[in-house]
Amino acid sequence: MNNEETQDEMKQSLAGFSFANNKVFYISSLALFGLWLVFCWQGLTTVVEIWYGNEIFNHGFFIVPGAFYLIYLKRFELLSKPIQTSPLALIVIIPALLLYVIGVAGDIQLFLHAATFTLLPALIWLVIGTAAAKTILFPLVFMLFSIPVGEQLIPYLQEIAADGSVALLRLTGVPLFRSGLYIEIPQGRFLVAEACSGVSFFIASFVIGSLYAYLNLVSVKRRAIFVAISLIFPVLANIVRVYGIILIAYLTDMEHAAGADHLIYGWFFFAFVILCLLGIGEFIRQSPYEPCKIGPKNATTSVSIPAIISSIAVFASFFAWIVNISNISNSHFEPRLSTLAYDWDDNCQTTDWQPIVVDPDSEEFGFLKYRGCNVKVYNAWFSEQHNELVSDLHRLFDPERFSLSHTRSITTNGLHLSVYHVVSSSGNKLSIIRFYEVDDALFTSAVNAKIYQVRNVLFGSSRGGRLWILAANGHDVSDISDSLSAILPHL
Q1: Are residues 114 and 184 located together in one domain of the fold?
Q2: pTM assigned to the model
Q3: Which of 109, 115, 252, 478 is 20 to 30 A from residue 407's alpha carbon, by CA?
């Protein structure tokens, strides 16, 4: 078959899929995607704010358009398959809708975004059918890269970068002392901060590596190997970057790489990493990408009206549930005031530590009198109206001033707590604990507290609660343990 005949067949395939011949298909598709847009509006608006405001996830603006372009490249093969409604997609759609409702109830943006960008490819699967969806499986899965997830890896990547760079520095004979994420050399002190975690490199490398593997590698084995390389390579490269920054500072007596220089080096290094990654891809590439051949000319289009109506009904029922949840969330619930005011001494100033807590309705803090001003107590009330009790935005300490040294567990009055031992840039040590109070129930686990709140909202109750954080000087847990014994009877 020559090239002209192939082009004629392609044109015939496109002509056969005209609006006049498939009105029901187009109308039902527009109705479903219109419902998706309305239903997921909260998820879409919040995800756009994250894409725009967080440079780690700026790539999110290009994922869905890129996925549709990949679908466009496969259009002829796609249209050669039978296009028919697949109710089987409901096994993904219904759990995604439930996840979205839970996200609304608990104000869990990760759930909102995951459900939003799971529903979109699932709806495409619903309207075009299983056979056609298999043809564009990667573009559909690629849409999941729109979900802004990965910041949770920052602490682990910081530790890996610190461990790896310290090992290389010692290997090359650079004298150093490490305390938490602080690395001190004779010329000065460095903090492996969140910006040094390399999470941006990691996520971008994963996205680019996956896309490159799809477009340029043929075998599944080679694709899997290259994606694995795209995950490991940026982590190793970031270790070398942190090591190089400290080494340059050591060799130049802090003249270079000590200020904003290392950020500039980071961007150049990132570009170099991507080029190296693509070079590895070219090295293992088996053969150039070949477009798939088109199939039969006379592909059929079949729309199941009952399946479409059932899907719309499912969306409508979940939407009604969300409206009910929103009405509960907008109700006003008065906070219960703390009963510890008479135990506090606001004149103590033994530490200037305070947590970073975002937008509480009310907050108070002070030092417990009977502990000789050694224990500082902070609590904040959250109504869950435009704020959130359990949130990754809340920090036990300012990461620019303190570094996590290690953690340990203690049990006091039946509560199993994690103690976070931190050290400041000046060497001061603190021990910090955190727990949550919701409906007179205490939770040491953020996950359990959030689950309890979500359950309350799903069954028509309030979800407001209080955050408690205690900090004591030093790494001796006895003061923290005794303080809890004094506080808990008042709660």
Answers
A1: no
A2: 0.79
A3: 109
